[in-house]
Amino acid sequence: MPEITSRSWIMVATLGFVWGASFLGIELALRGVTPFWLVAYRLGFAALLTVMVWRLRGGRIVRPQDGKRRWPFLVVAALFSSVIPFALLSWGQQHVTSATAGVSMAAVALVVMPMAHFFSVGERMTPRRVFGMLVGFGGVLVLLGDGLFQSSGAALENWGRLACFGAACCYAISSVTTRNCPPIDPIAMGAITMVVAAGAAVPLAIATEGAPPLPDLTTLMVLVMLGMVQTAGANLLRILVIRSAGSTFMSLTNYQVPFWSMIFGAVFLGEALPAGLFIALGLILTGMGMSQWDAFRNLFRKK
């Protein structure tokens, strides 16, 4: 059964902040590297860090007699949490507006909920939870504003939209798979999934974009940050949240990401903030609170 504590709320808030910053990093990195090689570099640095941490902690995976049960979960989690959605977003965002990509990421919560209802223990849909999720999603729609109705004008825009929504479905599949994986050390799970993901991303980048580009120093620093903070560190937090608090709770992160993405864009890129920013934030927070009302109530009862 999911156990939502004050630590769970801190971790999910941290994830929203960290992943919101990743859009700024991706935009900066794309100035010096191609999309699929961005994914490969990012996952490569993430794998390097997580394996180092894992080895320092002994490098144990699971008991030999239990290992075979976990590998299918680990491979699916790796492919659907990193390689496939990263590739879909990198390609899709070339053909759609940023608002379309933002809505797709916010939709993760709506996709996760029915999947968790049927495939995870203790994550049942309730009228309050569904309504809260819809209110939070409405906040994201307000946040993105008029951009929702704008077209990029790209010839492959519809395919780009489908790619972004496909990425959202991948994240949902990965969350439920991670939740249902048999017991395993979170550090080991993070390291294994990052190695599998990097191992799949490099051949994909070679097949689609040829030899790896040599990034300049600034781009390299951004790629290292994307790999080690927004991917390796965030992936570990993500695993801890899902394994303890559940995939539905984890999906609340996706309502926060568009908000933080716009804040970072305004601060570092001079982008204009939407007029309905604080209304949107209010709806997002209200929706999060309503969908997790029982967890809030239990948290304050413990105090």
UniProtKB/TrEMBL annotation:
Belongs to the EamA transporter family. Keywords: Membrane, Transmembrane, Transmembrane helix. It is found in: Membrane. Pfam families: EamA. Residues 10-144, 159-288 form the EamA domain. The keyword Lipoprotein does not apply. The chain crosses the membrane at residues 9-30, 36-54, 74-92, 98-119, 131-153, 159-176, 188-208, 220-240. Its main location: membrane. This is Drug/metabolite transporter (DMT)-like permease. It is a multi-pass membrane protein. It comes from the Bacteria. InterPro entries: AA-Vitamin_Transporters, EamA_dom, EmrE-like. GO terms for cellular component: membrane.
